[in-house]
Design a protein that fits this description.
Largest sheet of chain B: 8 strands, antiparallel, barrel
Structural class of chain A: mainly alpha
Strand order of the largest sheet of chain A: 1-2
Shape of chain B: globular
Oligomer: heterodimer
CATH class of chain A: Mainly Alpha
Distance between the termini of chain A: 20 Å
CATH class of chain B: Mainly Beta
CATH architecture of chain B: Beta Barrel
Strand content of chain B: over 45%
Strand order of the largest sheet of chain B: 1-4-5-7-8-9-10-11
Largest sheet of chain A: 2 strands, antiparallel
Number of strands of chain A: 2
Order of helices and strands of chain B: HEEEEEEHEEEEE
CATH superfamily of chain A: Transmembrane di-heme cytochromes, Chain C
Number of helices of chain B: 2
CATH topology of chain A: Fumarate Reductase Cytochrome B subunit
Number of domains of chain A: 1
Number of helices of chain A: 5
CATH topology of chain B: Lipocalin
Helix content of chain B: 10-25%
Radius of gyration of chain B: 19 Å
């Protein structure tokens, strides 16, 4: 099934989830790595260009995923009430932070009117311009948001593990695309 | 009251005992911006990268009779660095280079002036940048001076010096490599007599 059911995630949602998870962690690593590269490193410029292009792609994926989320049922969460509201808070924060990181990331290189070259194919134009102090602040925000996203993702992964190994429910395996129902517990991976 | 009067009289007579030609005080023409602080540094050793500090202020004194009394003071807002590339400027403002959050300004205070005649001379002073104070010398040359068309009196100089990037202990100062060790500074300063 491409679409979500009342208790299952569809293949689109699952693919988006894992693809974005991989991209987000790669972007985090790339971001940390690129700002510490030596000027004479062969990747000094390309790393930043890749980060910008990937950022645009991730933003497009995010828009699609966000739309998809509202056009699909959200599978019923399997935890206790407090767990479900906490999970929902983490999910919503993740969406919010992902939008925020994309927007701040876009404004850093474009603050002075220079667009972003998307894989050297097309140029995403600059829009708003910002003062130096504002750009520096946006840069700090971008970094803080990146850390928040990764820390939340680790919490989220920890919770998935807890559901899988302690509660022994289908929370993790249904996100791994297992077609089986909730009864077939603990046969993912 | 009395003490003040004596002090005032003392200061006055001291002032009068100075050479007849009074020291002229000038403020940088910041309002009209006839003052520039420019740097150039080699990129990879293949070309010059040129930039400006757009925001600074300062003053100088000029004494035609006693050039040794000539002095200059300036404060530069380092966040105003402008190399015509916003991402590079952002990087230069960051903790990797100028660290403007912790060291927002650089100052230069002259300590000595040696005239070599012909409107030229060497200005020695203390440059404080990135928390490091270095004694540097500026080659100074007077460009001209006189009445301006709007009722004021102006005098202008150019100055140049070479700074060494490694002196200022910037976190990533050495990342730019040996070609970028020397930074050429060029100043063009017009002052309005006060």
């Amino acid at each position: 099934m491409l679409t979500n059911g009342s208790t299952t995630y569809g293949s689109i949602a699952i693919s988006l989830h894992w693809l974005m998870a991989i991209l987000i962690f790669s972007m985090f690593a790339l971001g940390l790595w690129m700002v510490d590269l030596n000027y004479y490193h062969p990747w000094y410029h390309d790393a930043a260009e890749l980060h910008k292009s990937m950022g645009i792609l991730l933003f497009l994926l995010l828009l699609f995923r966000f739309t998809w989320r509202f056009r699909n049922p959200i599978p019923k969460p399997l935890g206790k009430a407090w767990e479900n509201s906490l999970a929902s808070l983490v999910h919503r924060s993740h969406y919010l932070l992902l939008f925020a990181i994309a927007i701040t990331g876009y404004f850093i290189p474009t603050a002075n009117g220079v667009g972003i070259d998307l894989f050297n194919l097309i140029t995403i134009p600059a829009t708003l311009s910002f003062s130096k102090t504002e750009v520096d602040l946006i840069g700090e925000l971008h970094q803080a948001i990146a850390w928040s996203i990764v820390i939340l993702a680790l919490l989220h992964a920890g919770a998935a593990m807890k559901h899988h190994f302690i509660d022994k429910d289908a929370t993790l395996i249904r996100m791994l695309g297992c077609q089986c129902s909730q009864k077939s517990k603990q046969q993912g991976d | 009251m009395k003490i003040k009067t004596i002090l005032a009289a003392g200061l006055l007579s001291f002032g009068l005992s100075l050479p007849a030609q009074a020291v002229e005080n000038y403020n940088f023409d910041i309002k009209g911006q006839h003052a520039f602080i420019q740097f150039k540094i080699k990129h990879l050793g293949y070309s010059w990268l040129i930039g400006n500090f757009n925001t600074f202020d300062g003053s100088f004194t000029y004494d035609a009779e006693n050039p040794a009394f000539n002095s200059v003071n300036t404060t530069i807002d380092l966040a105003s660095i402008d190399s015509n590339h916003s991402e590079r400027d952002k990087h230069l403002r960051s903790g990797d280079f100028f660290d403007v959050a912790n060291y927002p300004t650089a100052t230069f205070k002259s300590t000595k002036f040696q005239s070599s005649g012909d409107g030229k001379g060497i200005m020695t002073g203390e440059l404080t940048l990135h928390g490091v104070t270095q004694t540097i010398t500026l080659d100074v040359q007077e460009i001209g001076g006189g009445k301006d068309p709007w009722g004021g009196f102006r005098r202008g100089f150019e100055g140049s010096t070479t700074l060494h990037l490694s002196d200022y202990k910037m976190v990533k100062g050495n990342m730019l490599g040996a070609p970028a060790e020397n930074v050429e500074i060029f100043l063009s300063i017009e002052g309005i007599r006060q």
